[in-house]
């Protein structure tokens, strides 16, 4: 809502609603002049971030490897979203120097761009996800990611013990089967609509939702996974369970994730994150 | 039922992001080449059975994300490998320089007898070449490794390099593998810390465990 900046508020607001007769223009303008400062600060920040140059660009080899099967990301597309993606990622690298660029962020920023169709909005949403909603999945040590993979392992032990036992028996590390689930927030794992429904919950409820999705996939397909008799089989099963009508029917899938895994309190997640984090730290 | 393979082991693809590790693998296992494919996140693997010197070898080839920070995840797999491809891109001097870093990480995390070969990929991109073939040869000599310039795009030296590394691993485990052709059940060199059950068709458990 950047229009109306500076000028006196009109009879019709930016959304098309006529203002009532008794509209309090004075307090609205007082509010808007304060809000304008925020909008301006963001716009300035954004344009500065776009201009900056440092080493981030060097590691950005993923532009043509982001969504090669998406026509809007092809070099021949007009406009070509590879440029938009590049801007968002370079800007984020400047903004959050401790994280910089991590492979996987390209997919997330790519989805945000496809949905918002807006570079600056994509940037701020990426910042909300990486800076506030998710633990530090993408920082150089990837501690948050490694921790959450272990947390999922613990949750599976509690809720689907036979599967946990199977993986343990065959030496399948959780990171092998689920790292992409966490890093890409289910992009390229589940169907687009399902991913977007999950993201709605992710923005609203936080990172706990990722465990709900993972546990639902595993619990729902428990019998199928348990058919596996060796290491490669298990890995194949984990790829198979992310396909088919169960995940395509995004509406029922979303209902399932709140029932299938049973209760999952934030206190449990926090406790497990703490203990798994300590364990990883001890392992070095 | 005839056994499906005589021996199973693991190879690992290492090298900078974008040097073509996934493309090498797809060309070798599926004879496919996709110039634009999605970047590898974490670790993945593909399997293929080849016959070397009359021995049916089932190889599990591990593909890794090249970005440095992913090593925190991928290094866990080094110790499970019997052979390692160190890959650079002939059109990227930087990726060639980094081979030394990859090699020293292998020394640190991989098992002692691990076999290594050096790969200069994208040999079809002659017009963009930044690393002379001689530089590749020299680096390989320094490390006592075999060297191939490959192209997943034009299918140059793909089968040759995978077969060569397989031979090297077989030679390194010659003693353990003696009498293999007479054995009824497959040997599992990859059997390091997980218990892998024999595949369907090999009803008996391996007669010995070579690890």
UniProtKB/TrEMBL annotation, chain A:
Recorded GO MF terms: GTPase activator activity; small GTPase binding
Domain of life, source organism: Eukaryota
Annotated SUPFAM superfamilies: Ypt/Rab-GAP domain of gyp1p
SMART domains, sorted: TBC (SM00164)
Residue ranges of every copy of the Rab-GAP TBC domain listed in the record: 36-206
Xref: Pfam families: RabGAP-TBC (PF00566)
Keywords: GTPase activation
PANTHER family according to UniProt: GROWTH HORMONE-REGULATED TBC PROTEIN 1, RAB GTPASE-ACTIVATING PROTEIN 1-LIKE
Function field: May act as a GTPase-activating protein for Rab family protein(s).
Protein name, as recorded: Growth hormone-regulated TBC protein 1
From TrEMBL, chain B:
One GO term describing the cellular component: plasma membrane
Cofactor dependence: Mg(2+)
UniProt keyword Oxidoreductase present: no
Domain of life: Eukaryota
CDD domains with a match to the protein in the record: Rab15 (cd04117)
Reaction equations catalysed: GTP + H2O = GDP + phosphate + H(+)
InterPro entries given in the database record: P-loop_NTPase, Rab15, Small_GTP-bd, Small_GTPase, Small_GTPase_Rab
Membrane topology: Lipid-anchor
Sequence similarity: Belongs to the small GTPase superfamily. Rab family.
Job of this protein: The small GTPases Rab are key regulators of intracellular membrane trafficking, from the formation of transport vesicles to their fusion with membranes. Rabs cycle between an inactive GDP-bound form and an active GTP-bound form that is able to recruit to membranes different sets of downstream effectors directly responsible for vesicle formation, movement, tethering and fusion. RAB15 may act in concert with RAB3A in regulating aspects of synaptic vesicle membrane flow within the nerve terminal.
Assembly notes: The GTP bound form of RAB15 interacts with REP15. Interacts (GTP-bound form) with MICAL1, MICAL3, MICALCL, EHBP1 and EHBP1L1.
Name of the featured protein: Ras-related protein Rab-15
